[in-house]
């Protein structure tokens, strides 16, 4: 959702802001600030928004245009909070209400019954047995490394485990 906030259009430090905005849970509200006059400092604050967003406030210097993104949490409840825009070092304040709604899910008009396809699968397939073999060989070679220490008993189990992972990975696709 994107909204325009116009500043300095009707006079110095003037703020033109919509009364309310609607945003869905997990989306972002983008405030596009448009300055029609001299550069100014402004503050954008979220009031009572702790349950809806991590955004608290921003102090901004605005030359001409700026986009400010206010993310709404994906776990936010439905409800509303206030956004306050302040210019003129606190002399001009305007508020808007942000209404947070659940995401709407579009369902097709007529849901058709889709038959379930059940595949019969053997308890252990050939690639699974090969992966199991490589894991067992890796553990055996690791155990042999305690009896005959050296660099080879360290490398062999790693190579066997890596080969088992690669075979398991490519057998699933």
Describe the protein.
The protein has 173 residues and is of the alpha+beta class. It has 2 helices and 9 strands, in the order E-E-E-E-E-E-E-E-E-H-H. It has helices at 126-147, 152-172, and strands at 2-7, 15-16, 20-24, 28-35, 40-47, 57-62, 65-71, 79-87, 92-101. Helix 1 (126-147) runs antiparallel to helix 2. It starts with a strand and ends with a helix. The mean pLDDT is 84.
The main sheet comes to: 5 strands, mixed
Low-confidence stretches: none
Strand content: 35-45%
Could you say which structural class the secondary elements and strand pairing correspond to? alpha+beta
| Helical stretch tally | 2
Assembly form of the protein: single chain
Helix content: 10-25%
Q: Could you tell me the number of beta strands? A: 9
How far do the termini sit from each other? 39 Å
SSE order, one letter for each helix or strand: EEEEEEEEEHH
Strand order of the largest sheet: 3-9-8-5-6
In brief:
With 173 residues, this protein is of the alpha+beta class. It contains two helices and nine strands.
Question: Topology of this structure?
Answer:
Layout: E1 2-7, E2 15-16, E3 20-24, E4 28-35, E5 40-47, E6 57-62, E7 65-71, E8 79-87, E9 92-101, H1 126-147, H2 152-172
Parallel strand pairs: 1-4, 3-9
Antiparallel strand pairs: 1-2, 4-7, 5-6, 5-8, 8-9
């Amino acid at each position: 959702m994107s909204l325009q906030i116009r500043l300095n259009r009707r006079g110095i430090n003037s703020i033109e802001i919509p009364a309310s905005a609607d945003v869905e849970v997990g989306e972002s509200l983008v405030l596009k600030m448009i300055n029609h006059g001299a550069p100014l400092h402004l503050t954008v604050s979220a009031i009572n928004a702790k349950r809806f967003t991590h955004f608290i406030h921003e102090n901004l210097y605005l030359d001409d245009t700026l986009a400010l993104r206010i993310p709404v949490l994906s776990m936010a409840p439905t409800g509303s909070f206030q956004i306050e825009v302040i210019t003129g070092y606190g002399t001009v304040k305007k508020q808007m209400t942000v209404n947070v709604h659940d995401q709407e899910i579009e369902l097709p008009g007529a849901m058709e019954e889709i038959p379930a396809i059940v595949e019969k699968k053997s308890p252990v397939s050939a690639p699974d047995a090969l992966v199991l073999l490589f894991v067992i060989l890796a553990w055996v070679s690791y155990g042999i490394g305690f009896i005959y220490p050296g660099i080879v008993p360290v490398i062999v189990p790693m190579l066997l485990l890596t080969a088992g992972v690669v075979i398991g990975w490519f057998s699933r696709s």
